[in-house]
């Protein structure tokens, strides 16, 4: 029996909450912890683990998109109905904002806590290692593109069953290892929106001003990834053989 759209959106809300709370929480609370901080590798693994665990938890309910770029890529790849994309996007963004708000409430409980960028994504002077706008735009498009290839490939009917969450979680870990120094890595507009709003509310308005890139680039990369997989890598049925009438001569 099909799962109602309302229940699927609720699953997407809580799944995206977990992704942002777990991934950005690792960055805000644990990455730079004195002497024992988990660093870039730990944050990358945290993001991967959030997707892996939620894929097993809600994959059978909503598909576990947790990301507007993934939803769009699945639409362009003909794996998801276009008329259900907007409700998914709203649920994902709301989940990301709620997670960032709860994370801030926890982080602010520390004496002398300063929100700063609050794990926001940025380019130029707000890139972790000073990468230009063009470099950041390119990285986000390319990494989201390959993320969609892995998602669509690992969930293809021809793929080994039961391993998709592992492939997707490890892929997200890998692209964070690549992209954290460049943009703090987004590949997910919902992940970027929540922290940017919290940063703006605490004085870091630059994050909201740069948020456009972290919507544009992942959506472009996701759409291209879905289109490419559908056009090039998906299994295409052979056209039906049409019996031609036999011509008889008198």
Descriptive notes:
- There is one protein chain.
- It contains nine helices and no strands.
- 65% of the residues lie in helices and 0% in strands.
- It has one domain: Glycerol uptake facilitator protein (Up-down Bundle).
- It has 250 residues and is mostly helical.
Given the C-alpha coordinates, what overall shape results?
globular
Sheet of most strands: none
- Residue share in β-strands: under 5%
CATH topological fold name: Glycerol uptake facilitator protein
- Calculate the terminal CA-CA distance, rounded to whole Å: 59 Å
Helix content: 55-70%
Nearest-angstrom radius of gyration? 20 Å
CATH architecture: Up-down Bundle
SSE order, as H and E?
Answer: HHHHHHHHH
CATH superfamily: Glycerol uptake facilitator protein
Mean pLDDT equals 92
Count of runs of 4 or more consecutive helical residues: 9
Overall SS class: mainly alpha
Uncertain regions: pLDDT < 50 for 5+ in a row? 244-250
| β-strand number | 0
The total number of structural domains is 1
Instruction: Give the C-level CATH assignment.
Output: Mainly Alpha
């Amino acid at each position: 029996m099909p799962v109602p759209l309302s229940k699927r959106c609720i699953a997407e809300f809580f799944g995206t909450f977990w992704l942002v709370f777990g991934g950005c929480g690792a960055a805000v609370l644990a990455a730079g912890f004195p002497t024992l901080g988990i660093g870039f590798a730990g944050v990358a693994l945290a993001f991967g683990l959030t997707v892996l665990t939620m894929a097993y938890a809600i994959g059978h309910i909503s598909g576990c998109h947790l990301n507007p770029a993934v939803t769009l890529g699945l639409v362009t790849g003909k794996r998801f109905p276009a008329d259900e994309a907007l409700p998914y996007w709203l649920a994902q963004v709301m989940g990301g904002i709620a997670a960032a708000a709860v994370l801030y409430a926890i982080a602010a409980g520390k004496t002398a806590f300063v929100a700063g960028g609050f794990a926001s994504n940025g380019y130029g002077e707000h890139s972790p290692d000073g990468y230009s706008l063009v470099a950041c735009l390119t990285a986000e498009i390319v990494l989201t593109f390959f993320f969609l290839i892995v998602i669509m490939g690992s969930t293809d009917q021809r793929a080994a069953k039961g391993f998709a969450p592992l492939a997707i979680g490890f892929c997200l870990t890998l692209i964070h290892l690549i992209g954290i120094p460049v943009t703090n890595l987004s590949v997910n507009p919902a992940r970027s929106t929540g922290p940017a709003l919290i940063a703006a509310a605490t004085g870091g308005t630059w994050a909201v001003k740069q948020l456009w890139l972290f919507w544009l680039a992942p959506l472009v990369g996701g759409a291209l990834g879905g289109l490419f997989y559908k056009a090039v890598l998906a299994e295409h049925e052979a056209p039906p053989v049409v019996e031609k009438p036999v011509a008889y001569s008198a």
